[in-house]
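Ribonuclease H protein At1g65750 family
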Amino acid sequence: MRNERVFNGCDSSVWEALRRVHALHTTMVRAFAVVDEHTPHDAGLTLVSCIFAEGLQTSLHVDASFNTTSGQACIGGLVRDSNGRWLWGFFGAVEAVDALQVELLAILHGLRIVWSRRIQFVLCVTHDIQSTHRLTAILYSIKDLMHKPWTIQFEHSFREGNKCAYLLARRGQM
């Protein structure tokens, strides 16, 4: 709200600030909610839950944000233990030309952080990514990390099930 006032000349009321805080709180509560077949939900909605690591695995959740109008690209991610507890997170702005490149950079950055912390069993949760693309340098860097002496497993997650990583990726725009 302060940034909107300073940079855009917008002046919001206290009620608008409270509405935004409530909306953010609701989003965070939903992001951490445990969803199962007994959870009541509205008709027409798809239930999506977070993917958790099992046993000795640590889960790396990554996401990216690319604004086609401004060209602004941001990444974010978090690492959880097999009980779903948050271990650490990251976010930041990166240089990219399209959404796929930003997604790949999010995976690459997340894997480098996990490798530097000597995590041996990794479940990488991300979106679908095409296996052939002009961004071969990033793909090869990810491939190099995959061949290190550790175990990595990739899993697809809908954005709704990976909300924390999504919010961290968006944070990089601020």
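thats it. The mean pLDDT is 78. Strands lie at 58-66, 73-80, 86-94, 121-126, 151-156. bye
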